[in-house]
Predict the structure of Fatty acid-binding protein DegV.
Amino acid sequence: MPVAVVIDSTAYLPSELVQAHRLTVVPLTVVLNGAEGLEGVETQPADATLALSARRVTATTSRPAPEQFARTYRRLLDDGADGIVSVHISAALSGTVEAARLAAADLDGRVEVVDSRSAGMGLGFPAIAAATAAEAGADLAAVRDAALAAIARTTVWFYVDTLEFLRRGGRINAAEALVGTALSVKPIMHMPDGAIVLREKVRTASRGVARLVDLAVEAADGDDVDLGVHHLAAPQRAEALRAALTERFGDRLHDTYVSEAGAVVAAHAGPGLACVVVHRRPEG
């Protein structure tokens, strides 16, 4: 393709989509009890889930180094790409966008870095939109604009069994102020501006799944949609969510992608996560 598309490992795209759209993935690093591993390469979701089940576990994450992005960009350009659109996890959650921009600064405008203001398929859908535009022969600016348009049409809702892991990782300052010390509640979260914000609290996991479905339908605003469903060590919960969404959307639902979130999200959300990502399809 004239324009290559780069993502990071927090997109949690099914491998067949990565291959079909010729996406290049740069992994983040997960540190579990002092042991470092590249997400999706050396550290898998089960590794993080097992570690987090221990009481005194330490789990942290770190962005790719700018040089890691620079090597990736140079390789793609050397292989014939005219330009690169690099789409990444929200800058409010990670320094990945900053690292990508530092690397891009030395490449004479041939790399456009896009902050997805999200994670999971909230980053995946914009990447797919960018890759689809690139496959159709769009230039660098048009491929970037395709990603930005998809971001504007994508909404993320998720449920966690406890706020404890988000609190430990410092990812819920605003939400923590709302719930105080009541970490036993079942929260529904969203990412309106790239940061994690508490939407409401529910009493049970089943109610959490039901609310995710309601909120997804509300976010669709009557449009046809594609959906992403993520989970962490909760495949049955994800299947219940997928089935309920399929029933509620009916003919308005086109593609649904179900995948387990990776070790980076596991470190901050904990087991039991259920997430729905709504991408409203453009008219026509």
DSSP finds eleven helices and 13 strands in the chain. The longest helix spans residues 205-220. The longest strand covers residues 253-260. The mean pLDDT is 89.
